[in-house]
Amino acid sequence: MKTKPVGRLVVCGVGLIGGSFALALKAAGMVREVVGIGRSRVSLERALALGVIDRIAADWGDALAGAEVVLLAMPVGQTEAVVKAMAPHLAPGTLVTDAGSTKRNVIEAFYLHLEPHLAHTVPGHPIAGAEKSGCEAADATLFRDRKVVLTPLPENEPGSVLRVAQLWQACGALIREMSPQEHDRVFAAVSHLPHVLAYALVHDLAERANAEQLFEYAAGGFRDFTRIAASHPEMWRDICLVNRQAILAELDQYLSELAFIRALLLSANGPGLEDVFAKARAARMAWGERYANGGGSDE
């Protein structure tokens, strides 16, 4: 089925994800006008100068006039305030979706403020990202061969879900669906926990008296493990707070694994350590061969 181009797309939060969505649709000839809205006028003017957006909206009334599709791509902690502000100006039939890394709080905000529009409000999450942020990092190819998870609401019209899926597919993405609860549990384990661990290690080393010496000798292993600690702090603060129960459960599981490895070290149990490392190596290599080129990500 041929995908119909979007006449006017509104992007709230024209950073890496929102900006890349706009650029990808532009590259595919799938949008005629992109309107940007957000907290920072400076960032919006930069996005305009870079051609990521075509116009800056003065307010939500201005942004939503004639809008066909809205992408909410700001940090998830802003969701309720943004949805509440846009609700009075949202026309019937305007398609709303989001790019949040958590779904529970996003969906709660949708039910609270967008009840009349739920048929056309489809939650989503592109599994693509980088440690860089801002519209300068936006890339039209960011979503190619990357997964986008949709978590449709019972109230969603099938046509609205299909339309959102088609737009992401026009960006080169692979579409998957799951429940919001499953989404937040899965990404607590494979995305949110790794970010917490990377931030924690870098913070620990940076606070030590010999930090300069430690960083001087840090090499490939440190770089690979901690790359995501350069991610946007506000965004990850919000993700951690919103999904804290699932993250706490994953931290407890990880602490149990660390305690087990500590016990192996304490007892100088070489065979036990090698067994853990061998199983981990096999699992990592199998993941790399099967999945790494089709949707591994940072968010």
Features of this protein?
299 residues, alpha/beta, 12 helices, 6-stranded parallel beta sheet, 12% strand, 3-stranded mixed beta sheet, single chain
Task: Give structural notes.
With 299 residues, this protein is an alpha/beta fold. 51% of the residues lie in helices and 12% in strands. The protein contains twelve helices and nine strands. The chain has helices spanning 16-27, 41-50, 60-64, 79-86, 104-113, 158-170, 180-206, 211-217, 220-226, 233-242, 244-266, 270-290, and strands spanning 6-12, 31-37, 55-56, 69-72, 95-98, 121-122, 124-126, 147-150, 174-177. It has a six-stranded parallel beta sheet with strand order 3-2-1-4-5-6. It has a three-stranded mixed beta sheet with strand order 7-8-9, covered by helices on one side. Helix 4 links the parallel strand 4 and strand 5 (95-98). Helix 4 runs parallel beside helix 5 and helix 7 (180-206) packs across helix 11. The chain is elongated, with a radius of gyration of 21 Å. The two termini are 30 Å apart. The mean pLDDT is 94.
